[in-house]
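Quarterly update from the structural biology core.
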Amino acid sequence: MATTSIWPGSSSFYPGDTPYGSYDKEKAFQADIEKTAVWCAKRIGYPIVDIELQDTQFFACFEEAVTEYSSQVNRFNIRENLLITRGSATGSSLTHKTVKQNLNQLIGISSQYGQEASSPVGGDMKLYSGSIACSNGIQTYDLQNASVTTLESGTPGTDPIEIRRVFYESSPAMTRFFDPHIGSGLGSQQMLSQFGWGSFSPAINYLLMPMYDDLLRVQAIEFNDQIRKSAYSFHLVGNDLTIFPRPTSSFKLRFQYFKNADRTALITNSDVSDFSNIGYDNMAYASINAPGHQWIRKYTLALVKELLGSIRGKYSAMPIPNGDVTLDGDTLRSEGAAERDSLVAELREDLEAASRRMLMERQNDEANFHLETINKIPLNIYIG
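Predicted structure, tokenized:
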């Protein structure tokens, strides 16, 4: 039978004695790891009973306890801050840092909704312009036909596009405006030129009339177009664009579009996306407060009990003169597992109680309580 190592009663820690060495260079970690080893040994019976562990096994349990505490707190912070940090650049550590509240996620969603509107506002995709050479009497045109389609960016027939707006409308009512108050001179043409209509009207000048008079006449022209003429519209199916009414002359029909390739270009590989790449690292041991250190000590003890229970559980009893000694391996292992689960549940409960939502609810309850208290205070009565 192999000789069982017995803990000598003290430990000397050196960097490199833990499996991962995550905290070995911290002075506070070096000081507490030896003290915790002695404390755990005394809690499970030393020096009354021998402890079948080596000092490096105590050190491994202590390192695991610190890492577990850091992991639990970081996982809680990730749940709290993932919505805020999603889409931000990776690489910076958020451990022990306050993440300020912002509306970046909502602004991003609003921007995407604005991008998909009929008149895009915001978004990350550039809106390009294009045109179709329409001919007299032809209603349907293939947008992928390079002979009739011109694109600001991309090549018809090669680069898929997504049509957003088609500018096929009746001519403005102002270009067909007739004013009974017309006089003589060039005033009318000058006014039309200022509005950008050039010399569409044969009129010469106008008398000064109220603005509503012009608005009523323009509305009458537009209403007449809706009642007596075919509505200007279009029908888009696949690559085929059909326009109504049938063109009576040749002209360029302009439209706006997105490039389908720009949608896939919005996917990035360097931004925070989920639990796996948000910037939280192992906590510095010296930055953990006293309640956290106490949790780590208790968790270390639970791990030591499990480990010692597994070692002692290899043999149910050991022979001694005139009898056998029953070992408590199973008891230690079950106690350690129960204590470990209890500590994790307690920590998660404390973290949840300190969540942003719970703190806001508590603040709301306090505000309502103070308001009720103020309402119960009688008003002062002034006697003049």
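The mean pLDDT is 83.
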